[in-house]
Amino acid sequence: MKRAAVLGAGAWGTAFAKVLAEAGSEVTMWARRESVAAEIRDRHVNESALPAVKLPAGIGATSDLAAAVAGADLIAIAVPSQTLRGNLAEWAGHFPADATLVSLMKGIELGTTKRMSQVIVETARVDPDRVVVVSGPNLAPELAAEQPAATVVAGTDVRRCRAVQQAIALPYLRPYTSEDVTGCEMGGAVKNVIALAYGITVAMGMGDNTRASLITRGLAETARLGVALGADPLTFAGLAGLGDLVATCSSPLSRNRTFGEQLGRGKTLEEAQKAARQTAEGVKSCLAIRDLARTAGVEMPITEQVERVCHEGADPRVAVKMLMGREMKPE
Ligand SMILES: NC(=O)C1=CN([C@@H]2O[C@H](COP(=O)(O)OP(=O)(O)OC[C@H]3O[C@@H](n4cnc5c(N)ncnc54)[C@H](O)[C@@H]3O)[C@@H](O)[C@H]2O)C=CC1
Ligand SMILES: O=C(CO)COP(=O)(O)O
């Protein structure tokens, strides 16, 4: 049996801990609040993150980071992208020397424009081979309800990828491996921005033609940026690209889509933030992704408009007009 730690007891950390435990690992979760750790330990639930989900009784939980990671050979991290660097500054010294670090996050760091695996390598001072990314169409409440889904385990060390693949394979979760870390992370981060745009248009009453156009052109700009950063174009046709984009845009469970709906109803950023209980990564990542695109000389018109609506108070109706009024070109 493997010993795994999951750092972050939000929706995804909790669902992922359940997966690891059910696939045979001995799991300890780290929660920021001791009350959440106690609830997981004693009542086997995490009501605020995943209401009504019964967790395996064997999952341990603590708010003591050193205790959570002691002896772990797999450490999965599921905190907000923008706090990861700060979290790791406190944590990294406690990580066992050869543990595989699994990034579950889907965002780009503000300011540095770094992907989460890059932040882990830099801040925890580990060899890039030790970092593995898990990304795909994996809405936490659906996975926790054991609805069948697939995902991608990406890394530069095939042996570690296979070990993580084995550690999360279940009758309801089918993991595939990939060597394209950049592509998987860019797919996961940019789909959150496109899901914001999708939510905005849903709230504006737009129909399936608009939705399909957004998904398709959203994927086009995701792939354009990803390829400029060295990703394999085929990754964007896979689970961590199109798969996650479709799941997130289509699902009322998505925090990013829901956040977009608030903006589409005319709420300000601050009002939408007040209403959101959990992390909607696209809201901050859209700034970093726009900066990445500008530096790489890549056009990302949907991302540009999402940034304007989120952070410059632009009217969504004007944003739609600007997207539709762009210069004509071949597909
Ligand atoms: N929820 C989902 O369905 C999925 C989420 N993800 C990604 O996983 C990451 C985590 O997402 P969730 O668990 O859903 O988010 P969440 O908002 O439910 O949980 C985030 C957790 O991080 C903890 N945390 C630790 N340090 C923190 C700090 N300094 N500031 C704020 N919170 C801190 C919070 O206490 C909270 O438990 C995100 O990057 C998200 O995009 C990926 C796949 C699925
Ligand atoms: O990444 C996800 C599904 O794969 C979850 O999306 P949200 O963060 O928008 O809920």
From TrEMBL:
SUPFAM superfamilies: 6-phosphogluconate dehydrogenase C-terminal domain-like (SSF48179), NAD(P)-binding Rossmann-fold domains (SSF51735)
Binding site for NAD(+): 8-13, 140, 255
Catalytic activity entry: sn-glycerol 3-phosphate + NAD(+) = dihydroxyacetone phosphate + NADH + H(+); sn-glycerol 3-phosphate + NADP(+) = dihydroxyacetone phosphate + NADPH + H(+)
Pathway: Membrane lipid metabolism; glycerophospholipid metabolism
Principal subcellular localization: cytoplasm
Protein location: Cytoplasm
InterPro entries documented for this protein: 6-PGluconate_DH-like_C_sf, 6PGD_dom2, G3P_DH_NAD-dep, G3P_DH_NAD-dep_C, G3P_DH_NAD-dep_N, NAD(P)-bd_dom_sf
Keywords from the UniProt entry: Cytoplasm, Lipid biosynthesis, Lipid metabolism, NAD, NADP, Nucleotide-binding, Oxidoreductase, Phospholipid biosynthesis, Phospholipid metabolism
Binding residue positions for substrate: 106, 255-256
Catalytic residues (positions): 191
Binding site for sn-glycerol 3-phosphate: 106, 136, 191, 244, 254-256
Positions that bind NADPH: 12, 32-33, 106, 140, 255, 281
GO molecular function: glycerol-3-phosphate dehydrogenase [NAD(P)+] activity; NAD binding
GO biological process: carbohydrate metabolic process; glycerol-3-phosphate biosynthetic process; glycerol-3-phosphate catabolic process; glycerophospholipid metabolic process; phospholipid biosynthetic process
Source taxon at top rank: Bacteria
Glycerol-3-phosphate dehydrogenase NAD-dependent C-terminal domain boundaries: 180-320
Enzyme Commission number(s) from the entry: 1.1.1.94
Xref: Gene3D superfamilies: N-(1-d-carboxylethyl)-l-norvaline Dehydrogenase, domain 2 (1.10.1040.10), NAD(P)-binding Rossmann-like Domain (3.40.50.720)
Domain Glycerol-3-phosphate dehydrogenase NAD-dependent N-terminal residue range list: 5-158
Record flagged with keyword Nucleotide-binding: yes
A GO CC term assigned to this protein in UniProt: cytosol
Protein family: Belongs to the NAD-dependent glycerol-3-phosphate dehydrogenase family.
Function: Catalyzes the reduction of the glycolytic intermediate dihydroxyacetone phosphate (DHAP) to sn-glycerol 3-phosphate (G3P), the key precursor for phospholipid synthesis.
Name this polypeptide is given: Glycerol-3-phosphate dehydrogenase [NAD(P)+]
Source organism of the structure: Paractinoplanes rishiriensis
